[in-house]
Amino acid sequence: MTRRPATGGDLLRLVRVEGVGTRAELGRVTGLSRPAVAARVAALLAAGLLTERADGPSTGGRPPARLEFDASGGTVLVANLGHSRGQLAVCDLAGRVVISSDADLPPGASPAEALPRLLDGWDDLLAKLDAPLVPVRGAGLGVPDAMEAGRWAGSDPSPAVAARFGVPAFLDNEVNAAALGEHHAGAARGAGDVLFVKLSTGIGAGLIMGGRIQRGAFGAAGEIGHIAVAGGGGTPCRCGAADCLEAVAGGAALLARSPAADLAALSALARAGDPDAVALVREAGGRIGTVIAGAVNLLNPELVVLGGDLTGAYEPLVAGVRAEVYRRATAPATSRLRIEPSALGDAAGLIGCAAMVLDRILAPDAVDAAL
């Protein structure tokens, strides 16, 4: 079979991902003629996706020039929404947060309640930029709970996003988004097999295997918060079952047993050495570690990353987690296992949403269609 000629989208990937830096190098890698490379590069320059700068003094003839991906050539709108709070941001085309704010949403807001506020919030952030980056090229949302067929609680926000900003919208579970963020720029960067566990009001996991997020057949992978644990005393869970990990060791369950007003206050008490707070968090860590141990035996990740509000009390939490993981998981699965805190904190979900969008809109086929 004959190989199709490299397109503008292929050349952008070579510059952005592979670091190919000159027109001559692009020609050597792709086999394209100089005029063909020039035409494709000109289209990418005009689209604001590449820049070209002098790369040293001329030794005769045309000065050498280097091509670089232009991360300032547009914006990506992102929102990461948890059960109790969320964030909005505008990112550049490298996935870096340019400006962000808290999402002004009531806890448990439905898509119909949340979406108009999200759209207005993005408009407000764009208006605050000193030098607005244009154009908006895509939007990404991390939303609570499992998803199916790209829908959030049965609703598709894409038409409303397209009507306001004229761009496609992409969705994922908010824990998957945080896992992608850590894999893109945080504690899991470069790791191939990762279990990211978010410990906040609820408990959930994002799984990366072979460098790719795994969502399961119906988008419900990672729901470790709804695995039953022993000794729960019949505690009811919001899912309708009893003694789920989230119902027994999630943030809401811990606050019901603590005088702290929120997880930040509980974490502060634990960091200060309050014996009741330390014991409560460590006990929760042990229950969480029991479930993580099962996941480690099943999946054999190289890295477990702990994120979410409860990691504000990281030392007693991870002590409980590690004790159970290393006690219950097999020696081959734990011999080189690392358990680490999130490196990005609240920004993980935003950066992951941006990565989710950029993987799609900067794919060669998508770039070619845009050009």
Automatic annotation (TrEMBL):
Pfam families documented for this protein: ROK
InterPro entries: ATPase_NBD, ROK, ROK_cs, Tscrpt_reg_HTH_AsnC-type_CS, WH-like_DNA-bd_sf, WH_DNA-bd_sf
Source organism, top-level taxon: Bacteria
Protein family: Belongs to the ROK (NagC/XylR) family.
PANTHER family registered for this protein in UniProt: GLUCOKINASE (PTHR18964:SF173), ROK (REPRESSOR, ORF, KINASE) FAMILY (PTHR18964)
The protein's name in its UniProt record: N-acetylglucosamine repressor
Source organism (scientific name): Actinomadura rubteroloni
Lineage: Bacteria, Bacillati, Actinomycetota, Actinomycetes, Streptosporangiales
